[in-house]
Write a structure and sequence with these properties.
Spore Coat Polysaccharide Biosynthesis Protein SpsA, Chain A, alpha/beta, 2 domains
């Protein structure tokens, strides 16, 4: 063991770095407790249910597409089935596709146009600005004063417009109405169940609480409706971040526009059933949010907004900064086991570390409340997935840390859309899908190396009889092993 300690001669620096990293994770982790606190304060607040005006407003429904041959028909069919007067609804199919999706979509659009729908197929070949560019070009010719947006993996319900549009008439400054995502294929696999758990927390608690408590929320990119005037007033869609939805949301709210989140109005969507598709989605969301934080937070702090709004906006936009610190905590955990074993004079330090477990309790409470809010009958069964969810979050840390660093250092990357597989029930297959990842990303090898590192760490902890460290190391091991292993397996699967 003395030999091992020589490998970590800078033990004071390691202890300080570990404390700093845990402090940052603790600070952001306690935000879960803050959200639960505000939830208890605001859950009794009821929002009035406005009625549709006598003169039904004109609505434009925008459907941005890029190579969505498997799901485009499902999407257009569900939009055309919405209960809204045909003459008051324009449908823009914003198609940036480069494959057979173009022709398939053209035929579907022609079929519904012949049935009297005001539906247009707008095909671009340059993809300027990616999704934001397509939305902006469609907006320039949109007939509606209200703009509903759906990504290709959504299946909007028939009553969507009937339940969202009236809220714009509850106040002149209502700029956006967002609905809660539902999950078509939540029970498909452990991967989809873990995703559903995470998203339920975001929508049922975070979006709900932030909206009712007067904090800023974000348009989630889909399943929401904008007032066209608010988009223009905020400066229209920008292309300088890859989360154009969050960017526009903050610019609009800084201009005084009010947002409404409807937790009781749901929009079903398909969750990624393949791990590499999920990682691509998480990379984009993580990088884009940090880009928006760099762009927007200086303006937020210079504004005359209340201090509590500024603080919550910072936690909201900067939350993904935790991923590099998760990596640091993970890497330092093993040498700290050795330090604790051979340097008893630091016993006070490790006793102090116990307080940081409160952040885990806070996070667990947050997701428990979310599951209870949405799934009253079986929430206790669903929350058993929490350890799997936490391990998966650890396993994504390499992928998401790379995203954070690219955002910090202004490395531009192509907008990579999440592949859609049309996986709705247990028997559906995605293995032959042409859009699935066919090559292994280099970060996978780092993930597998981390898994090996923590296997060694578990062995060292057993040798040192530091049993308290083993659950955390096992979680890191399992997370990196599963995420890395599934990434290889799913990429190598052939139809």
């Amino acid at each position: 063991m003395e030999t091992l300690i020589r490998l970590i001669p800078m033990h004071d620096a390691l202890l300080a770095l570990y404390f700093l990293s845990l402090s940052i994770l603790f600070l952001f982790g306690l935000q879960s407790a803050v959200m639960v606190y505000y939830y208890t304060r605001t859950r009794g607040a009821k929002r009035s249910t406005p009625v549709m005006p006598t003169e039904v407003p004109m609505v434009t429904v925008q459907l941005p597409l890029f190579n969505e041959v498997y799901v485009v028909e499902r999407l257009i069919e569900s939009v055309c089935a919405m209960e809204y007067p045909k003459e008051r609804m324009e449908i823009q199919v914003l198609d940036d596709s480069t494959d057979e999706t173009v022709e398939v979509t053209r035929q579907i659009v022609a079929r519904y146009a012949s049935q009297g729908f005001d539906i247009k197929h707008i095909h671009r070949t340059n993809r300027a600005g990616y999704k934001a560019g397509a939305l902006k070009e469609g907006l320039a010719i949109a007939k509606g004063d209200y703009i509903a947006i759906f990504d290709a993996d959504f299946v909007p319900k028939a009553e969507f417009l009937q339940k969202t549009i009236p809220h714009f008439f509850s106040g002149e400054k209502v700029g956006m109405v967002q609905t809660r995502w539902e999950h078509l294929n939540e029970d498909y696999s452990f991967l989809t169940r873990a995703q559903a758990l995470a998203l339920d927390g975001h929508f049922a608690i975070e979006q709900e609480v932030r909206n009712k408590a007067g904090f800023f929320i974000n348009f989630n990119g889909t399943a929401g409706v904008w007032r066209k005037e608010a988009i223009y007033d905020a400066g229209n869609w920008h292309y300088d971040t890859i989360t154009e939805d969050t960017d526009l949301s903050y610019r609009a709210q800084l201009r005084g526009w009010k947002f409404i989140y409807l937790n009781d109005v749901t929009s079903p969507a398909e969750l990624p059933a393949e791990i590499n598709a999920f990682k691509a989605q998480q990379f984009r969301w993580t990088k884009g949010t940090i880009e928006v934080a760099k762009k927007i937070l200086p303006t937020v702090w210079r504004s005359e907004l209340p201090l509590r709004v500024k603080i919550q906006s910072t936690f909201h936009l900067a939350a993904n900064i935790v991923f590099p610190f998760i990596i640091l905590v993970a890497l330092l955990n093993v040498p700290l086991v050795i330090i604790k074993n051979v340097m008893p004079q630091y016993g006070w330090y490790f006793d102090l570390m116990v307080i940081f477990t409160l952040a885990s309790v806070s996070t667990f409470t947050f997701y428990t409340v979310a599951q209870y809010t949405i799934h009253r009958e079986d929430w206790h069964e669903r929350i058993f997935l929490f350890p799997l969810f936490m391990a998966g979050s650890m396993g994504l840390a390499i992928n998401n840390t790379r995203a954070v660093l690219e955002a910090i250092f202004n490395k531009k990357s192509e907008f990579v859309r999440t592949p859609k597989f049309k996986v709705e029930k247990n028997g559906d297959k995605w293995q032959s899908n042409k859009y699935k990842a066919k090559k292994i990303d280099r970060t996978v090898f780092v993930e597998l190396a981390f898994a090996a590192y923590f296997f060694v760490g578990i062995c060292i902890s057993l040798y040192c009889m530091e049993f308290a460290a083993i659950p955390f190391q096992a979680m890191f091991f399992f997370g990196f092993a599963v995420v890395g292993g599934l990434s290889v397996r799913h990429a190598k699967i052939r139809s």
